[in-house]
């Protein structure tokens, strides 16, 4: 709780794990490399203690597979708006989150997810490689989330 009594929400922003590059395969159809699969499982082990209530993922194969391999005890919702989304579009998605959800995992793509982390926290970090995640505490309900309403608690780069 903050000093104003507003429940703190937790957002975990995950960039999909390392994707394979296959000639002729559509970008949305790219899967994960063996290393990417390992990194996604490791990220899940680190995220699991935060007990996310919901995972929202881009429907692209590599993001959906990353979300699955996190192995979290939370439902996965696919949202096509995450693919190629700008940070302001991701903020809109966050604002539509059910108020009952205290901890949300967002699995998406760069540059949007990295720019979202920077926008919410006001931090500067040049790196957000495949499989990276950031844990952000938000001192506002989802519908009021705007830039700089978050505090960066932790980052992880595989």
Automatic annotation (TrEMBL):
CDD domains: HP_PGM_like. InterPro entries: His_Pase_superF_clade-1, His_PPase_superfam. Pfam families: His_Phos_1. This is Phosphohistidine phosphatase. It comes from Planotetraspora silvatica. The gene is sixA_1.
């Amino acid at each position: 709780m903050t000093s104003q009594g507003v429940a703190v929400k937790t957002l975990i922003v995950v960039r999909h794990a390392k994707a394979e590059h296959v000639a002729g395969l559509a970008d949305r159809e790219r899967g994960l490399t063996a290393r990417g699969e390992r990194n996604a499982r490791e990220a899940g082990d680190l995220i699991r203690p935060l007990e996310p209530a919901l995972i929202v993922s881009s429907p692209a194969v590599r993001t959906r597979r990353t979300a699955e391999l996190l192995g979290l005890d939370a439902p996965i919702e696919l949202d096509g708006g995450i693919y190629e989304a700008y940070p302001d579009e991701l903020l809109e998605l966050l604002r539509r989150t059910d108020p009952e959800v205290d901890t949300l995992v967002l699995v998406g793509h760069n540059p949007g997810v990295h720019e979202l982390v920077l926008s919410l926290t006001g931090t500067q970090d040049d790196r957000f490689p495949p499989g990276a995640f950031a844990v952000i505490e938000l001192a506002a309900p989802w519908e009021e989330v705007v830039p700089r309403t978050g505090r960066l608690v932790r980052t992880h780069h595989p």
